[in-house]
Amino acid sequence: MVSIRSKISLGVAIFIMATFFIIKSLVVFGVIKHCDEINYFDYASVILFCPFFFVFVKDFLKTKEELHQNTVDQLRYKNTYLEHAAKILRHDMHSGINVYIPRGISSLERRLPDNVIKEYRLEAPLKLIKEGLLHTQKVYKGVYEFTNLVKQSNELNMDEHNLKDCLITYLDNTAYKDQVVIDTLPTIKINEPLFCTAIDNLIRNGLKYNDNQNKMVAIYMLNDNTLAVQDNGRGMTNEEFDYFSKNNTRRENQKENGSGLGLGICVAILKEHNFDVSCEKLEEGSQIKIKLKK
After folding, report:
1. For residue 7, which phi and psi values (nearest 5 degrees)?
2. Backbone phi, then psi, for 211, in 5-degree steps?
3. Residues 191, 192, 195, CA angle at the centre, nearest 5°?
4. pLDDT 10s digits, 231-285
5. Bridge partners of residue 221, in order along the sequence
6. What is the 3-state secondary structure (H, E, C) of 278-294?
7. How far apart are CA 172 and CA 178, in angstroms?
8. Across residues 216-232, what is the average pLDDT?
9. What are residue 91's phi and psi, to 5 degrees?
10. Phi, psi for 161 (deg, rounded to 5)
């Protein structure tokens, strides 16, 4: 916020400059004859203008520096909270999701006789609990890898994985798995949870922003090092893709719900892998191209 002193200094500087401009204009148009007094006026105008203008510039820069420092302090506090939340996720929640609950379910199944399970129709509830746990573990694994990105000078944990096998496993419990066709894909080094999260986001976008009666997404290799994720939806140019990859950006009058964060996070994950991402609008739908680094 600009101080009163800065406003006054700027006002005086503008007044001096305006007066100087008016007098010089009158001299140019012959209303006033050029004389020694005019020269003295010019010199005095410059001398008077500089201090007031420099006061304004100094206060302005000081204000910007204070705002910058305030932003840095806020980010430092928020990063502290984020790191604490990451610690809770990585350590405290790990035991419950990956140790206690699985042991509890296994112990419960061992202690329940088959006749009791059949009599009380517990097969479906037990199946739901186990599938829910698998889904929670999958989500937790992705969140765990996301928290790694918070750390400074961090590198992704990457291992050799076959992309087709990873995606099939990841999509296995989704309601839209039958709408995704996955061709033969290579085996390369990736961070499995994050990579699958990114591709899943592209899949869901391709199905969500899609007015086709038979919504489909195909995943295949365009060439030896380019993965394609193609949908039959509304289509999107590369310029639109870049724009919507920015956080909190959505189409005007968009009827679908969403925060506008998903595509940005997806692109960020792929770039963390050093993969280049682009998009091409087709006659029907979009083709998102991901250049893989083998």
Report:
1. -65, -45
2. -100, 5
3. 80
4. 999 999 999 999 988 865 555 555 555 545 689 889 999 999 999 999 999 999 9
5. 227
6. EEEECCCCEEEEEECCC
7. 9
8. 97
9. -115, -55
10. -140, 145
